[in-house]
Design a protein that fits this description.
Elements lengths: L15 E5 L6 H15 L2 E8 L17 H16 L12 E4 L2 H12 L3 E5 L7 H4 L2 H8 L3 E5 L10 E5 L6 H15 L2 E9 L11 E6 L7 H9 L3 E9 L3 H11 L4 E5 L13 H8 L3 E5 L24
Parallel strand pairs: 1-2, 1-4, 2-3, 4-5, 6-7, 6-10, 7-9, 10-11
Antiparallel strand pairs: 5-11, 8-9
Length: 319
């Protein structure tokens, strides 16, 4: 997409990005995503890596010698990060930060200490015990106090053409929409607004959760989506997805329907845990094939009015 932002986005909401880089080959892609973010939205990327002391090594208190292993691990990780960012554009990357500790917890703590505006982390997928214990990206998305961008291996932050923004009719919708629109303006991407309406708990054996889409303008209770759609030329559609399955599954399916490159969701469901300890946001982070932006705190972009939908039922039209 174009490299310049629209005039309305001269005040970007991102100025400092913590990019979590592990030792796997996907780290280069995650760094590229973070650099694309700071190029489009302004700011600087802070490379970060968490290292863990192998459990088979005893702590220093159990030996008569000074424990040099932690310092060695930190030095090695620091050098590895320096090599990884060596070719990054000048002025766009800060000094690397390394912390010993559990990766997801260390990421959240350092993000707080650094006062960052965004955390960029790779999606690692999940297998086996990850379904019970959770992926690092899912834990960060649920626990962070800052926005989290989860970069998938097949994504390209340089070519974001379509963005799906999920709104729930809550007071936080204004912040979520403002964040999503700021990204859309910077990348000159089309925006699709969606609200998922659960219509039945039956038929959960269906292969697809979504049973249909309806234009938001047709229902009084979703007029807020129509107002949002008419307030910004970047919005291409506003609709409701009728679902017989979980909201997260409907969002993942809808992202495929509109060929979205990015899904923007709020963190407001972080208190709703399922049987395996994942939130709805965590499910989207783990299951989607697109990059996922999880919105936490109020953005630096201009706030839109809080949403107070009128009582009633309904849904919107499809993409």
């Amino acid at each position: 997409m174009g490299s310049g932002a629209h005039a309305c986005c001269v005040d970007p909401f991102v100025v400092r990005v913590l990019v979590a880089l592990d030792e796997t080959p996907r780290a280069a892609h995650v760094l590229d995503v973070a650099l694309q973010v700071v190029e489009h939205l302004g700011g600087v990327a802070v490379p970060f890596r968490a290292v863990q002391v192998p459990p088979e090594f005893p702590p220093a208190a159990a030996t008569s010698h000074r424990d040099e292993l932690p310092a060695h691990l930190v030095a090695e990780a620091t050098h590895a990060l320096e090599r990884l960012v060596a070719n990054a554009p000048a002025g766009r990357v800060a000094a690397p930060v390394v912390r010993i500790g559990q990766p997801w917890r260390a990421i959240v703590e350092v993000a707080d200490e650094q006062g960052v505006d965004l955390i960029v982390i790779g999606s690692h997928g999940y297998h086996g015990l990850d379904r019970l214990l959770g992926t690092v990206s899912r834990h960060v998305a649920d626990a962070a106090h800052h926005d989290v961008l989860i970069a998938h291996d097949e994504s390209s932050a340089a070519d974001v053409r379509s963005i799906l923004i999920a709104l729930r009719g809550s007071p936080r919708d204004g912040t979520i929409l403002a964040r999503g629109l700021a990204v859309a303006h910077a990348w000159r991407a089309a925006v699709h607004l969606v609200r998922v309406v659960r219509i039945s708990r039956a038929q959960l054996t269906r292969r697809r959760a979504v049973v249909g889409y309806v234009d938001a303008a047709r229902f009084e209770s979703t007029q807020d989506l129509s107002r949002f759609a008419s307030s910004d030329p970047a919005v291409a559609s506003a609709f409701v997805a009728f679902s017989v399955g979980p909201a997260w599954r409907a969002l993942v399916e809808t992202a495929e329907e509109v060929h979205a490159d990015l899904i923007v969701v709020g963190s407001h469901e972080h208190r709703r845990w399922d049987a395996v300890g994942r939130t709805a946001t965590g499910h989207v982070a783990d299951e989607a094939h697109q990059d996922v932006l999880v919105v936490h705190e109020p953005s630096r972009a201009a706030e839109l009015p809080a949403v107070n939908p009128a009582p009633g039922g309904g849904a919107g039209r499809g993409a």
